[in-house]
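ok new one. same drill as before - structure tokens go in, u give me an amino acid for every spot. 456 of them this time. try not to just spam alanines like last time pls lmao
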């Protein structure tokens, strides 16, 4: 009997060590890299990967259809196909457009996701089929490879049912401060809310914004302060060098090229920009991170600001979504920020992620929590143990994803340096980029380049 206490003490000590070791293993990330692309829905970009890459993905089968008129749904309809290509003109994605896409033209209060064709027809007869097309995996080969190798989130929504800038504001501040559209005067003045950048700075942690032509993060007024001036870097001059030297800050933001510049095409995926250039950007960032000494401590997040008017079959969440800060949208809708936007593609990359991971629902903190753009500041707060409060009620509610890197006891050593048999169809430019990776680098691709175009 006298030896039971020492045995119990030893057992408790062993349990403590196991719990402590598990906690240590679950927080391996010291650098979070975020790339937010533009205006594509999940089904449009990744939906067909369910069929050929991973059946666990909540994607499409081809049976998804939208009526030409939601007032007469039994009449003609258009079904989802796999022949997406260059898109012009740009589909509708204003607050009013998304309202019709999600609810139809009736007065329903439950999302039906059956108004995409009808809304597109109101803009142009040519758009009705365009919004019901998705890319074959071979047409977005970088994403296909990353989905196979790492994690895809198939229930990640834009933060509001509206356009680019309000959603981008949510990514780093968990609110758009009442905006549901692009208000030029307010964008010029800057939005006043606190950001995750401020929280990091308060905790003595660094961040960096690597931009290509304009940094949209400057729409946050706080980031215009003199103390943050050295946080902004020209992507082409600094990103690869900082990655190579192991100097990427804890939060690293990559801003894509939002418009053509001196003959160099935009690479943000916003229609009418060709997604081939977006694929090249993602490839370039991945390669730089994969070769970096920081690779084993890095999480790379790729998402899209909003769906851009393209069809998605998953109903947008609309029950008990918290208003971030008490603001409401302008007349005539007076939106209360009480429902989310359309589902968008989200991929996460890290050597700590199991191959072929599919993450669907959030695991709290609330029973109805969802993954949306506010999940990014919420998770950064958690991963870096920031002492600052949540930014708004929205990031306090949003699902967090730190568990995506919590299943492995050590980083993988089999993460690819390259994507095999790369084929990217550039529909507008009538070219085919083909190649096989050699010597472990995507840069060694043999490329057939379109006339007057430099992709590499």
């Amino acid at each position: 009997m006298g030896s039971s206490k020492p045995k119990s003490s030893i057992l408790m000590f062993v349990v403590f060590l196991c719990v402590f070791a598990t906690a240590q293993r679950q927080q391996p990330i010291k650098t979070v890299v975020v790339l937010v692309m533009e205006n594509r829905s999940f089904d449009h970009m990744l939906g067909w990967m369910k069929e050929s890459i991973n059946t666990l993905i909540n994607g499409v089968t081809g049976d998804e259809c939208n009526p030409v008129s939601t007032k007469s749904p039994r009449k003609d309809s258009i079904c989802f196909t796999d022949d997406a290509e260059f898109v012009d003109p740009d589909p509708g994605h204003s607050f009013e457009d998304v309202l019709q896409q999600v609810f139809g033209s009736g007065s329903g209060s439950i999302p039906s996701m059956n108004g995409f064709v009808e809304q597109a027809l109101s803009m142009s007869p040519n758009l009705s089929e365009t919004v019901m097309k998705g890319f074959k995996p071979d047409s977005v080969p970088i994403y296909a490879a990353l989905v196979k190798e790492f994690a895809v989130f198939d229930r990640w929504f834009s933060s509001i049912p509206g356009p680019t800038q309000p959603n981008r504001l949510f990514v780093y501040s968990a609110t758009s401060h009442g905006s549901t559209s692009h208000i030029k005067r307010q964008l010029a003045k800057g939005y006043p809310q606190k950001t995750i950048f401020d929280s990091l700075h308060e905790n003595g942690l660094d961040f960096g914004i690597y931009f290509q032509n304009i940094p949209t993060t400057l729409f946050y007024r706080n980031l215009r302060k003199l103390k943050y001036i050295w946080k902004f870097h020209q992507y082409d001059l600094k990103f690869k060098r900082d990655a190579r030297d192991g100097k990427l800050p804890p939060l690293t933001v990559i801003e894509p090229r939002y418009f053509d510049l001196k003959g160099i095409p935009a690479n943000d995926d916003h229609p009418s920009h060709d997604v081939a250039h977006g694929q090249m950007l993602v490839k370039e960032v991945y390669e730089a991170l994969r070769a970096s000494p920081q690779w084993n401590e890095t999480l790379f997040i790729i998402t899209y600001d909003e769906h851009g008017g393209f069809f998605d079959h998953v109903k947008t969440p609309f029950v008990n979504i918290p208003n971030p800060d008490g603001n409401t949208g302008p007349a005539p809708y007076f939106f209360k920020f009480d429902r989310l936007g359309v589902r968008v593609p989200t991929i996460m990359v890290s050597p700590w992620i199991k191959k072929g991971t599919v993450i669907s629902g959030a695991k709290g903190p609330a029973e109805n929590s969802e993954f949306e753009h506010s999940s990014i500041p919420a998770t950064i707060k958690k991963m870096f143990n920031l002492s600052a409060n949540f930014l708004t009620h929205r990031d306090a509610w949003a699902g967090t994803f730190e568990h995506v890197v919590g299943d492995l006891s050590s980083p993988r050593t089999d993460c690819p340096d390259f994507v095999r048999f790369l084929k990217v169809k550039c529909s507008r430019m009538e070219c085919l980029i083909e190649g096989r990776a050699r010597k472990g680098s995507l840069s060694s691709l043999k490329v057939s380049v379109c006339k007057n175009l430099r992709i590499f």
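Confidence is low (pLDDT under 50) at residues 19-24, 419-456. and btw The radius of gyration is 22 Å.
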